[in-house]
Design goal:
The protein contains 10 helices and 17 strands. By secondary structure, the chain is an alpha+beta fold. The protein folds into 2 domains: 200 residues, PmbA/TldD fold (2-Layer Sandwich), CATH 3.30.2290; 233 residues, no CATH class. The strands form 3 sheets. It has a 6-stranded antiparallel beta sheet with strand order 3-2-1-4-5-6. A 5-stranded mixed barrel has the order 7-12-13-15-17. Helix 4 packs parallel to helix 5. The protein is globular, with a radius of gyration of 24 Å. The two termini are 46 Å apart.
């Protein structure tokens, strides 16, 4: 992996090639490994090293960006030239924020050596456990176990330089019977914190216990959502907390900042420094990330800003910029939902009749203003009756407003995990019990 000194040297070479008054460099180095398995056997084991360098220049009232995966001197200078050409052909913009100068960043420990050196043989042993268990039971498993390390460095012509080195690991498994499925997943920067056997056992239990599911009618139910189901809500909510989205009138929070929107038990922060998160201490403009209270006891408190949206509202950037230019503005990439005082088991015991949902599949926005989502349950949906998980049910399609759902939260778990969303990203979330959750149709599977 590229060291701080090596990345600094490469960035300085790029900046030395540029005649533009403002030049920005983003350099990433990713070393990733993946073990994929299906039908109770490993079917793929790969390792890749990808280096990418992106240059943005601001020339007059326009900006241009170009990238390369070659780090020789000639390629670096050629990339700068292409960026300048792009700027010359780009439509002029109004009020492009100037690049930032040197900043100080909070020290974080994102790199875990144990994860960086995880071997294919060690990942194979994890697969062996669940594969053997499934073969003995006459069922099948499939999934992935990935691990890797990543370096990200930023620099610009005003003297800003930022560097972060991190690791990540993720294990996900699906167990399949003739007519049911069970799923579980865990992710962490420290692979030793992923309890792969527990995850495998959970997926196995849900699949075997989910055989021969029956239909239940569409309608409004009390639901107990496991964390992976909750995290999809946050993914789509995150887009709405962009100050630019509010400025553009596309956010569900237009006209709602400072107002009560959810229940008193809902507090959400964006916190890159939470121990279960793996967020950068800086954003893609080089600004330090600020811990931001997005929602406090149901009241919308703050939006997140990049330099451009902050200038428009005459406030400071909160350190949430994406690589520029982009159409999103700043985004909260490290959301954390405050914990409650119950457990998943207590939620189930307190439910007279409802549904237990493992996670959702392909949730997407059906209506933006009220943040109505639609999607399917997947890999383990069960009927709860009189405080017990009674029997498996066939998957259901939900169509529900996140605003209404989070206004109807009755219980929140003490335990929280880092859970990834279906379309990418991940957040620190608890399980939730929600009343009157709308399932719009049944399925045949």
């Amino acid at each position: 992996m590229l060291t701080r000194q090596q990345t600094r040297k490469i960035c300085d070479k790029v900046l030395g090639c540029s005649n533009a008054k403002q030049t920005e460099v983003i350099l990433s180095d990713a070393d990733s490994s993946l073990t994929r398995f299906g039908k109770n056997a490993i079917i793929q084991n790969v390792n890749s090293r990808e280096v990418d360098l992106s240059v943005r220049v601001i020339v007059g009232k326009a900006s241009g960006r170009a990238s390369t995966n070659c780090l020789d001197d000639a390629s670096l200078c050629a990339t700068v030239e292409r960026a300048v050409e792009q700027a010359g052909a780009a439509r002029p913009e109004t009020k492009i924020p100037p690049l930032v100068g040197p900043k100080e960043y909070r020290k974080v420990k994102h790199f875990v050596e144990r994860t960086a050196v995880l071997t294919p043989e060690e990942r194979a042993e994890v697969v062996r456990y669940i594969a053997r268990k499934c073969r003995r039971a006459g069922v099948e498993c499939a999934g992935t176990y990935s691990s890797g390390a990543n370096v990200l460095a930023l620099a610009n012509s005003r003297g800003m330089f930022a560097y972060d080195k991190s690791t990540s690991a993720e294990f996900g498994v699906t167990v399949l019977t003739e007519n049911s499925a069970g799923w579980a997943e865990g992710a962490s920067r420290d692979c030793s914190k992923i309890d792969t056997k527990n995850l495998a056992d959970r997926a196995f239990k849900k699949a075997v216990g989910g055989r021969n599911p029956a239909s239940v009618p569409a309608g409004r139910y009390t639901v107990v959502l496991e964390p992976a189901a909750v995290t999809d809500f946050l993914l789509f909510m995150s887009l709405g907390f962009s100050a630019q989205a509010v400025q553009d009138g596309t956010s569900f929070l237009v006209g709602r900042v400072g107002k009560k929107l959810f229940g008193n038990n809902i507090t959400i922060l964006d916190d890159a420094y939470h121990p279960d998160n793996s967020g950068l201490p800086f954003d893609f403009e080089g600004m330090p990330r600020r811990k931001t209270v997005l929602m406090e006891k149901g009241v919308v408190r703050n939006l997140v800003y990049d330099l451009k949206s902050a200038r428009k509202d005459r406030v400071r950037s909160t350190g949430h910029a994406l690589p520029q230019p982009n159409t999103y503005g700043g985004l909260p990439l490290n959301m954390v939902v405050e914990a409650g005082d119950s457990s998943l088991e207590e939620m189930i015991r307190s439910t007279k009749k409802g549904l237990l949902v493992t996670h959702f599949h392909y949730a997407n926005v059906a209506e933006r203003r009220e943040l109505v989502l639609t999607g399917m349950t997947r890999d383990g949906t069960f009927l709860i009756e009189n405080g017990r998980v009674k029997r498996p049910v066939k998957n259901m399609r939900f169509t529900e407003s996140v605003i209404k759902a989070l206004g109807n939260v009755e219980m929140i778990s003490r335990e929280r995990i880092f859970a990834r969303a279906f379309f990418g990203g991940g957040f620190v979330v608890p399980a939730m019990k929600i009343k009157k959750f709308n399932f719009s149709s049944e399925t045949k599977f």
